[in-house]
Amino acid sequence: MVKMNFNELNPEISRQELQELEEAAERAITYDEESPEMTPEMLKQFKRMKQKTRTKQTASIRLSEKAQKFSKAYGKGYTSFLSRLIDAALDDAALVKKCL
Description:
Number of helices: 5
Mean pLDDT: 82
Shape: extended
Structural class: mainly alpha
Number of strands: 0
Number of domains: 1
Low-confidence stretches: none
Order of helices and strands: HHHHH
Strand content: under 5%
């Protein structure tokens, strides 16, 4: 089962899509032979992948209004999202060159 907060949704989601999600959240979970309920032993097989631990430092940066709205739309933890986004961008030499 996937758990997701409504504030994590794309802000451009339609009213109909939002209504469908709200209705789905109210439905009971139906298990079958293809998707059985997971036992505690089955759940133990899953491990969250840890990212490389990097030393974190605080920095103040100026963001455009567009960048602020985009990142804040992802809800709680948007600063961590921005940090990962910047790390990924810095690993892309062509993107770095384009932004200089």
